[in-house]
Amino acid sequence: MFVSSRHLFFFSVTVRGTTSSDRFKGILLVAKGQSSQNILGSWSSIDSSVYVVFCDGTSSNGITQAASTTKSQIQATWTSPSTTAQENIVISYQQSCEVPMARHRLGNDHVFVCQRLNDDTIQLQRFINPGGYSSPTIVTTDSNYGGILTVTRVALNNGVAYCEFTLSNFTTTMGRRRKRSISLLSQSTQYRILVATGHLAGSNALVQHSSVAVLTQKIQLDQSGTIATANIEGSDDDKAMFLRAHGIIMLFIWILFVPTGILIARYFKQSWPTRKLCGKQMWFAVHRSVMIFAAIMTLIAFAAILKYNQGTWVSQNESREFAHSIIGMLVISAAIIQPMMALFRCHPDHQYRFIFNYVHAIVGIGALILSIIAIFLATLFSLSDTSINKPWRIVVAWESTEFAILIGFECLEIFYRKKWSPFCVKNRDKPVQMDVLHNSSDATPVDDRSSPENILKERLKTFLLAIHILVAFGLSLTLAYCTWQAS
What we know:
- The chain is α+β, with helices and mostly antiparallel strands.
- The protein is built from six helices and 19 strands.
- The protein has a five-stranded antiparallel beta sheet with strand order 1-8-3-6-5, with no helix packed on it.
């Protein structure tokens, strides 16, 4: 018991078993007034194994577990309400498998799903979650899990979905009892309602929900009742926008913009030799602009995911998500280091300029490779269950196309270097016009633009670059669509 006045109080709570070997899965922490039984105060925690939940439509006033793995203890901090008059406040906890998980799995529960499908029709289905934390299993009409479901009304009015149903015939047939994976519903038992809201995949399949609520009042199935969750849905939509922004920005930046900037720096140094932009060689100006834009947008996407997760780190129990976050931080670090390193680079004629050239290239290529791994991991998230089957195949298709385009560029360079007059054995004694590029200390021959061979070479390079841009844009758009659906 804890006595609160008009001042703020902070109460540190640690929940553990009676012995060090005791472990548990589910937990719910709330603080209630002893007389009013109202939920009071707010919770916070830096423990990655728990997260805050919304009880009775109020934010951060409950604590539950973030994963289905067993744990030996959890830690959280309760903050008293600043406007509460003096009252005895009871802080109690409940260990239960009925608390919603971080994913779309509850645990040993009966689930009634009111769905708004793609065509705006409303559908009500009944599921069970057997085996603790397995995926929901639909209940068929011939199944007997306590009560026969009868849908009495479904409707969509002003964007609000209504699902009304009754449960009847709770009798069980004696003599035909069998071992069940879940207890039967009963009219004589009081139940606590757990509400989760989220979006459906493009195939109308259930995917991860990010909003959960634990209703304080209990219900009994021989009485009528109404559950309204419109306020939860709205907050979920707002929060999902940050997840969508993160995914879509990262896809376009690291599939389209960054590879384009690398290709221009690698294969177009001798293109447009007489054209300049802002006093710089055309290729260099384009490369610099694209990469600065990519670095800025990467930081914006990073800020979006921080906002979505409310500044908390991904739990190590979610292995793919955790690996994605670590690799993503390496990519973001490279995006910050690259422009800073370029800002302090030495002059092109400096004797140690080659060090910058190599480090700049290694960090850039390394960041691109890591970004591919991060994107691939993201397509394996449970959140990525969309109407497009296995979105990771899109990433593989993009990688294969980029590899083929890269081979095409290299073959083109090797072929024309052998045929290019300054490198031919018979022409090595002829004078060659030289030009010093802005990002290199090497003097590079400037070929004759009017040469038929060079014109063909430039056209082929431009064609390969155009293929890259079209393919990268198309696949980025497809993955962005998957991200929008899944989140």
